[in-house]
Design goal:
single chain; 385 residues; alpha/beta; Rna Polymerase Sigma Factor, Chain: A; 3 domains; 4-stranded mixed β-sheet; globular; binds NADPH dihydro-nicotinamide-adenine-dinucleotide phosphate
């Protein structure tokens, strides 16, 4: 039976992997909305290829280019933050939320408010608005399917089991491109080196997060909200091969793990087909060729981000939203060549130490905290520069 889908962040890495799967299974999907920020021509091309109902750019100044690229297609074009929200609220069977950063929060919430099934890649929205977002899911009866490979693995390992029987949820971490670099060289790591992940092909922001291990910190907070077993039952282990995507250990000593290639099409396919399964073009795992799987404890002296994120989730309140906003600003500054690699997490800690607003209870609260935390982060950078 044909299903309808909207893809928020269609021009990104996760968007491309999703559309690749849909392209291979065209007869079973109808595309409702495709969105981007400003890559108007790429978006229009995708909208034409998939006969989308509507294409939306978040940046309104890019709307004329989108309109021009869609001329004569009969596909609606829209632009701006409100247009993203309206597109996300359109009826569809599945919303794939893959905008990067807190910019994805309001559109993701719009889909949740409609009680939709949302395949969530946009981890920053859950980190910033964890309590507000999960309360909306409970109130509206929406379904959240985790796309992040670790959370998708945990989701699969938990199927049919009671959270009360969980002893540990263990997130695996690749350790990023600098996992074995000498400590004194980290300060000189360049953006080009940071975005070159050894195992995964991803967008620039998440690649830098992976290099600082803030990605694992964000995922720790994400797991805290998705699988409420308590902070003390969540842990991280470094597994540089990225074959085991995460594990759940039960009270009887059984550990269930999900294994697969380092290809986002595997977890994305599991959400597209859920609760069934579908084919992917990914090569089967050849464990004999891999030979052995290795694990080691994370080094929080080298990569303090996981400690900072754990402390933020324990502090609760606004801390995770502040952490996320400060990290987004610091990563953008690093990518622009304005700060050193090792300053990214230092700035995040600095902002967490100076800006401590009241806990958010609404979406508007989270957006206001995010805005203010970004100003604090910019000021911290100016002060140090
Ligand atoms: P990319 O940077 O590759 O793509 C981001 C997408 O979001 C693009 O479509 C971009 O549009 C759009 N976008 C960016 N800024 C805005 C904005 N202000 N308003 C509206 N749209 C915007 O990111 P990824 O695909 O790598 O990641 C997407 C999300 O998925 C992130 O939250 C990431 O953490 C998460 N994730 C990604 C994984 C991966 O393998 N890439 C794995 C697990 C999770 P445009 O092209 O016009 O800029």
């Amino acid at each position: 039976m044909t299903r309808t889908i909207s893809i928020l962040g269609a021009t990104g890495s996760v968007g491309a992997s999703t559309l690749d799967l849909i392209r291979r299974d065209r007869a079973n999907w109808q595309v409702v909305a495709l969105t981007a920020n400003c890559q108007a021509e790429d978006l229009a091309k995708l909208a034409r290829e998939f006969s989308a109902q509507i294409a939306v750019v978040g940046d309104e100044t890019c709307l004329p280019a989108l309109r021009e690229a869609l001329a004569g297609s009969g596909i609606e074009a829209a632009g701006g933050a409100q247009a993203l929200i309206e597109a996300a609220a359109r009826p569809c069977d599945l919303t794939l939320a893959a905008i990067v950063g807190c910019a994805g929060l309001a559109p993701t919430m719009a889909a949740i408010e409609q009680g939709r099934t949302v395949a969530l890649a946009n981890k920053e929205s859950l980190v910033s608005a964890g309590d507000v977002l999960t309360a909306a899911v409970a109130r509206t009866g929406a379904t959240l399917l985790p796309v992040d490979s670790e959370h998708n693995a945990i989701f699969q390992c938990l199927a049919g089991n009671d959270l009360a029987h969980v002893r540990w949820i263990t997130l695996t971490a690749s350790g990023g491109p600098f996992r074995d670099w000498p400590l004194d060289q980290l300060a000189h790591a360049t953006p080009a080196q940071a975005v070159k992940h050894p195992n995964w092909s991803m967008g620039a922001k998440i690649s830098v997060d992976s290099a600082t291990m803030m990605n694992k910190g964000l995922e720790f907070i994400e797991a805290y909200h998705l699988f409420p077993v308590g902070v003390e039952r969540l842990r991280i282990i470094v597994h540089s091969q990225s074959i085991v995507h995460s594990m759940v250990e039960y009270r009887d000593g059984s550990t269930l793990a999900q294994l697969g290639p380092s290809d986002m099409r595997v977890p994305i396919a599991s959400t597209l087909a859920w609760p069934a399964r579908m084919d992917t073009p990914c090569a089967p795992l050849d464990l004999a060729a891999i030979g052995e799987l290795t694990f080691r404890a994370p080094d929080e002296t080298r990569f303090p981000a996981t400690r900072v994120a754990r402390e933020a989730v324990i502090a609760r309140g606004a801390a995770p939203a502040v952490l996320n906003a400060a990290n987004e600003v610091a990563v953008a500054a690093f990518l622009a060549g304005h700060i050193a690699f090792t300053q990214i997490v230092a700035y995040v800690e600095d902002v967490l130490g100076t800006y401590n607003p009241a806990a958010p209870t609404t979406l508007e609260d989270v957006i206001a905290i995010d805005r203010e935390a970004r100003i604090h982060a910019q000021q911290a950078m100016k002060a140090i520069a």
